[in-house]
Write a structure and sequence with these properties.
The complex is a heterodimer of chains A (622) and B (134). Chain A is an alpha+beta fold. Chain A has 16 helices and 16 strands. In chain A, helix 1 runs antiparallel to helix 4 and helix 12 packs across helix 16. By secondary structure, chain B is of the alpha/beta class. Helices cover 42% and strands 22% of the residues of chain B. Chain B has five helices and five strands. The longest helix of chain B has 13 residues. The chains are: A alpha+beta (622), B alpha/beta (134). At the A-B interface, helix 11 and helix 12 of A face helix 1 of B.
Amino acid sequence: MEDKIAMAGDNPANTTPASRSRLRRCLWDGVLPEALGLCFVGIIFGGFSAAYLVADAAWQRRALEAQQGEAQRLAQGLATILGAFGDEQAAVPDEWASRLGQLPSLRSLRWTTSDSETRLAWPSAVAAVSGLTGADDRGPPVVAQVPVQTATGAPAGQLRLELAPPIADASRHALLWNWGIAAGVTLVVFMVVYRRLRRHLRPMAAIERSLHCYAQGLEQELVAMTLNDSLGAAARGWNRLIAQLTDLQQQVQSGQTAPAPGSVLERFEGALFRRVADRLPLGVLCVAENQRINYANAAGAALLGRGVEELVGRPAAEALPDDNVRQVLANVRAGIGAGHAVDHTRQDGEQEIALRFRVLPLTRSGGGGGETLVTIEDIAPLREGQKARDNFLYHVTHELRTPLTNIHAYVETLTKPDFDDEQTRKECYNVIVSETRRLSSLVENILSISQLEVGTARLDIGEVDLQRLLRQMVQDNLGAADGKRIDLTLALPPKVPKIRGDKQRLSVLINNLIGNAIKYTPEGGQVQVKLELTPHTLRIAVSDTGIGIAPPDQPHVFEKFYRAASDAVQSVTGTGLGLAIAREVARLHGGDIQLQSTLGKGSVFTIELPLSAVDAAEVPRS
Amino acid sequence: MSRVLVAEDDPHILRLISLWLRRQGHEVLEARNGLIARDLAHTQLVDVLVTDVNMPGLDGLGLIEDLRGAGRVKRGVIVLTNRWDHGDIRERLAQWGVEVLPKPFSPSRLSELVEALAGTATGASPSGVQGPTP
């Protein structure tokens, strides 16, 4: 077994005598079952042989006993017959002789009287008739001797009968020989097959033992687990694997962060890096020392609008779309300005492509030259977000500024002695109050949308008299409607059930719809608020004869901050929050809002609230 | 006494500016949007134009451009702007050399500006608003 595990002399410094002895024990642990297995095969073989011999002896003994019994019975019978015949039968008649001749195992028969006179002796007397030879090579006979008595009971001598033994010695010996030869041949064949199999199994068994030791935590003894190369290709492959593992182990132990060029670790890390980089959403390019791209991931190629194959091998200066990026690349190669972001924007058809490039040196020393890494980030979504935020801020500040301007100007007016008359003062107070309310409603809207967006909005459920609420909402908006000479009307059914809901939020919802209708309806138009009861729902429809909403804008009007791009909409100040809030509030009440609109003719916003939200007791009986 | 045209879509601000300027003794023409303002200015020459930038129909810049070309404003223009208005709007206003008053504005400051423009010597070309004389 020792030849399989070649203990190398140059073990790593960290191996200890203790761990080496453990390894040795561990390896022997592996050898033991193999040896035991072989012994077991031998024991089984020997056991079979011994069992055969014992069984043979027992069977032979039983056959002998049976033959003795047979001889005894035969002799007894013959003695009885001979006694009955007495002296008259001096010789064996033919009939008897032929009967005796049918006993193939009979060897001799002798009747001796008391005065030593032989009255009957076979084979001499019988052989001629029966054709028996009377003797064979079967070995010592089975003998039976019985006394003969006459019919009167007087002794008439002894009868001695000899039968052949049950199996001939010669044939038994031949059988044993055959058995012995068969066993010998089988053993030889077994040994030959075993030897041949072992040639293949030895390296496997050795590898298995090494792996077993590795599993036992003896990995620091890797070198000692190398096998003798003469064991064949499997052993040589195993040794290479061990060498590479040892290599890795040493690098990890020596704390090397970057693998040696061409080393296993480098190849391993290279493959890992490639797999990771290929799947990154960030564009990655590696620029070799010769200024050509030697790696590009799929995202990088897509962001540059090319294929990976097109990029690899191409000079970086050709592939990069911007002079600034090329300049930064040159700077980083010269050892300055690593990591600075350079933004590049280009138009691809109608789509604007915005990319952010960063260049970093890949050399460890960072002293310029060498390989460089270029990352490419798609910043279009970032820009979109910034635009949306700027847009929102612009609209919010614009909306805030209008009531603030009014309050500021009217307060200043109040302080001037020139405007001390009663009518002016009253007018100033009224404007200040209404603009303060407008400001507060705007702030409320901004808070609402942020709450709804974060998902922290809670309903303050109570009983809501919709009839009263709608009247109040219409009343509140009459001023604005009158200012534009808009006819604002309210249509209510005779009896309206009270519903359970958040009064404050429902009033915001209705107010936003009425406010929008007035805002986007030209002077002299009409706005109608109508409440309807259906079997399962409660509908509040706010219709106007306003500017309407173009079909492409209709799916988006409930998105927050969305405002149609048309001049008619843009000329009206608004945050794009009102409808987003309205829909969220309707949905929080288990309902929804529908829109029907024709551009240039007007819009109908229909709030639908499920009747399940309505207190059953309050539903009027029809 | 001068004739002042005020173009502003917010009724409260429009009302307040009128109130102040009338107290100063000016004749005030009120316009709720740029289109009404343009029509009014084309009907009668005005001394001073006070206008908002964002207005339905015709915005403040369009109005100034129109009246400037037609030479309908004699003395000068005051523009009420939002501080957040885009850079190109501010650039154009600077080019035209008009008075700019950012919102929220002080009505007394506006009165002073109107007074300064209206009181400018007759015949001089103030603020470069007046177009080529026909």
